[in-house]
Amino acid sequence: MHFNAITLASAFLATSSAIETHGGYHYESRFSVDAAPETSDVKDPYETEAAKQAYARLEEQVKATGIAKQCLAEPTGVQPADLYALKDCIAADNKDHFFTLLADDIEESDDFWEKVVQESTTNRTLWVPARVYTKCYFNGDLTALEFAAWTLSPNADKANLNANPEHYYKETVLDITGAQSSQIFEGWGGVLSTFGTKRTNFTVPAFATPVYGTEDTPEAWDIGPSFALPLQRVGAKNLVSGSRQTFGVLHIAVRDFLASEGSTGLAGIEIYSAVWYPPWDQADAADQQEFVKNYLADEAHHMVVEVINLTLQAREDCKTGLCVLPSSS
């Protein structure tokens, strides 16, 4: 397993991503604001490898527990579609099955993140990001405002299970004021990093417009004026179990861009997706380097997969009238 992870890490980090085409639309990713766009596909190779790992783990646990055993098939060479069919079947039986099937994984993940937090500075100016900027060339077929509105709808939670191989559960609640909170169960980390996948059950108790230059949201996290503040959100990621420890901060944003700002001659939307993590600066040098270099790269690639899958679903839902835009009254 470690050999495979190291080999894949070298391949992905050397050649990752490009102008890739999915559902008839072009996508382009870069992993920092000053980076050049990637030059070969990210989504398909990463999604396929993550699907193989997730399928193997679920299959193992279904066989061990007998839960949803009617859902197991015998695919020849697991593809993402095979995994998504398995997850759909398990969820149709009971969407809470994933918490039982992967209970040991959740416990192991809690221990990992509590260790990272305990061995890290609390100074968020020193925290480190997993992040990606993804240009989605919809050329008017999906706007930033439409996508933002869609993410607040039940359709976004419905699409989440199959937006990424390591997605297992998401429930978003809007209160009477429109404030948003979510419970999420997902994993990341097993394709590029030798740490393996950390399947984590967490909440985002509140999403808020960022106020930069504060202790909670340092100036260094500011992504500039091209992303309007009303279409940005930040929210702490808190473990569900134990101490309910904050182990990261999610930061998402979306904007429209002009054809002149892209490289395909088309306009579209750009999505910024980031999680800021404690830097594990008190770990030994090898673990700290693996965390910062490969584990965070793993999550950034995970984000590319979910951004592409979710925007394609949002486009379909908006086309059929399932996007509800905020009232202008």
Describe the protein.
The protein is an alpha+beta fold and about 325 residues long. The protein contains eight helices and nine strands. A hairpin with a 6-residue loop joins strand 7 and strand 8.
Short summary:
With 329 residues, the protein is α+β, with helices and mostly antiparallel strands. It has helices at residues 2-15, 43-65, 80-93, 97-101, 103-118, 144-151, 154-160, 285-319, and strands spanning 20-22, 25-30, 128-137, 167-174, 180-188, 198-204, 232-239, 246-257, 268-277.
Features of the shown structure:
329 residues; disordered N terminus; 9-stranded antiparallel sheet
Q: By helix and strand content, what is the structural category?
A: alpha+beta
Summed over residues and divided by their number, the pLDDT gives a mean of: 91
Residue fraction in strands: 15-25%
Low-confidence stretches: 1-17
How widely separated are the two ends? Answer: 56 Å
Count of DSSP-assigned helices? 8
Shape: globular
The count of DSSP E runs of length 2 or more, i.e. the number of strands, is 9
Major sheet characteristics: 9 strands, antiparallel
Oligomer: single chain
Q: Helicity level, as a percent range?
A: 25-40%
Radius of gyration: 19 Å
Strand order of the largest sheet: 1-2-3-9-8-7-6-5-4
Order of helices and strands: HEEHHHHEHHEEEEEEH
